[in-house]
Amino acid sequence: MRDTLPDPLVFQTNAAKHKPENIRQPLNACPFCAPAQLTNVLLQQTDMIWLVNKFRTLQNTLQTLIIESTDHQGDISNYTVAYNRQLFAFAFQCWQQLQADPRYQSVVMYKNYGPLSGGSLRHPHLQIVGFEQIDGYADISLAHFQGLPVSETDALTVTISTKPVMGFVEINVHLKQATALTALADTVQAIITYVLQRHYHGQCDSYNLFFYQLNGDVYCKVLPRFVVSPYFVGYHLAQVNDHEQLMAVQHGLRTIFAERGLCQ
Q1: How far is it, in rounded angstroms, from Cα 48 to Cα 53?
Q2: Which superkingdom (predicted)?
Q3: Could you say which of 9, 47, 118, 183 is the most buried, measured as most Cβ atoms within 10 Å of its Cβ?
């Protein structure tokens, strides 16, 4: 047991009181469907808009988000290949711009999708958050991205974690060539399509996508989301599926990679 712990993020409840929600209540209005009314826009490219989050709920941070598309029902899984590549290029441009700002000790980029992902709005968006005083990668190890091999090319490596951050299935992509964003976009799109359409007999409706900058390389994780394990909530104990199930996921991913012509 540790004697000391890092300081947690401080959630500002007053800022969250009027935060919109339309995942569980889909008839509620969507602010992202009215782009002309958006404020604090940082950068825009076609339908993609990077802006400061209106509901900044975390102390000592800059919370921003990227509206991915004008399509309220859009997602990485159903964009065209070309549009998804444009989205990744735009998102990485924004992420790198905030990383270059010396005011922030670390900058994270992630995506919530579905009712179990922790998100509040259905409209597709990524989030980029700059932490003034916290290292968002302090508890992340390269071991979290190692495990059962799925695919490897000169540009990137795909694995299924055997030592996940939380569990039960975490699919990792290690981008080995910084210029290979097209390969990353195509690979992540295939993984998310697998998660939503084929994983757990097609019953998974939520996922998280996390990006990491570690030792000069880019990593990302795709997590199918279900109810969080009490072992993780109460004891921070991650769980991983047994080897037989991990091999089933490995086979499923290799199948969809082959269907899409992604090298293995």
Answers
A1: 15
A2: Bacteria
A3: 183
pLDDT at 188 over 70: yes
Cα angle value 214/219/222 (rounded, 5°): 140
> Quick one: pLDDT band at residue 1, thresholds 50, 70, 90?
low
Cα separation of 161 and 168, whole Å?
9
Q: Which of 228, 49, 226 lies closest to 128, judged by CA?
A: 49
pTM above 0.85, yes or no: yes
All structural domains of the chain, each given as residue ranges with its CATH number in brackets, are 13-131 (3.30.428.10), 142-259 (3.30.428.10)
Task: Return phi, psi of residue 13, to 5°.
Answer: -65, -35
8-22, 80-94, 109-123, 145-159: the lowest-pLDDT one: 8-22
What pLDDT score was predicted for residue 7?
86
DSSP string, 156-207: EEEEEESS-SS-S--EEEEE-STT-HHHHHHHHHHHHHHHHHTGGGGT---E
Q: Could you give the CA distance from residue 25 to residue 170 in angstroms, rounded to a whole number?
A: 29
| 56: exposed, middle or buried (Cβ count in 10 Å: 0-12, 13-18, 19+) | middle
Model confidence at 15, in pLDDT bands (50, 70, 90)? confident
The CA–CA distances, whole Å, from 98 to 10, 43, 127 equal 21, 12, 12
Instruction: Report residue 261 as tokens.
Output: 């012509």
The answer to whether 84 and 69 have CB atoms below 8 angstroms apart is: no
Structure tokens at 116: 């179990």
